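Listing S7. Sequence submitted for prediction.
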Amino acid sequence: MSVANIESGNRPPVNKVSPSKWIRQNLFSTWYNYILTLLSLWLIYWVISNLFTWAFSQAQWQVIGANWRLFFVGRYPVKDLWRAWVTLGVIVSLGGVSWGILAQKAATLFSPRILIVLGIVAATCFAVAIPGGIQSSIILVGMLILLIVAALAGKTIAKKFPNLSSWLPLLWLLAFSFNVWLLLNANNIKLDRVSGLMLTIPIAIVSIVLCFPFGVLLALGRQSNLPIIRWLSVAYIELIRGFPLITILFMAQVMLPLVLPADVRLDRVVRAIAGFTIYSAAYLAENVRGGLQSIPRGQTEAAKALGLNPIYTLSFIILPQALKTVIPSMVGQFIALFKDTSLLAIVGLTDLLGMSQSIIANPKYLGRYGEVYLFVAVIYFICCYAMSLASRKLEKT
């Protein structure tokens, strides 16, 4: 076949398999596949039917509605809850603008899949009327509309300023700083007074932001030609990876104040962030090192031939390729870090899981373990899946 024919649109035929034929070929091809398929279908039916029976006839979801505010903002002052709503509005607005800027080359922002997701989110916002009140539902639906408007505005702005995407990290940093200031400015509330999901998410975000550059430096140090830097990096990575995370957190809470000057007293939240950062950086360093090793040596030699110094070679040639290669493993580490924040309840901080345990300890809600823990699991799943979805989008850019 000539090049002209290929360019004209002649492609090899694609074999299309009907659903019924695919089922016969993959699920009922042999007698043992037939048995395994029937057993699997029966097991799925049994699990789903029992789950639905429990959820709609036995579970007492009033425990979620009665403690809706505690799950998300903990014991944050009620009169200052507007600060939490403003914080959410800032995040939603900037998220929509970022979506529009990053999708500036897309034909449309609202593909069928996106519309389905937005519909599910809208239905969920209306469902909040049951536990959280109609006012909360109206505000959440308004947030969804704000997200759509901000995305359209972001795409329009990106057409006039194509390089605006390079400023997004700075905008998110400024927004995060503003939100922290706004939340902690309520009656001079202290960090260790913040609880619930409002504590879980900031600790995870700050730990991720801090462990990333630390992990990259450790990976570069382990690849260094200087023996002192290399062996110090190796010693740190192997030592930290040899300890459980809960040990690191206890050391950060108990041992860290002992090595600091007497007049320096770090907040418990800051010590927890230090523990997560120290621990995650060691694992992230190995992920980045795998990416660095995947880059052919010819890339470095070509950069030297062009006259680039080692810093430029590393910054503009090696690291961008290495980091893009290890995006899945890095995001997996970030997701693991977010889930590991549940250990904060063990070291005396009332995160989302700690608040759930406090609710269950209430005599009014004794025995409501299934409802509370299932609700917490759904929140963790939504946050983790959002991170996974963002990483897949990032891989395609």
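Caption to Listing S7: primary sequence and predicted structure tokens for the chain studied. Residues 20 and 161 are 50 Å apart (CA to CA). The mean pLDDT is 84.
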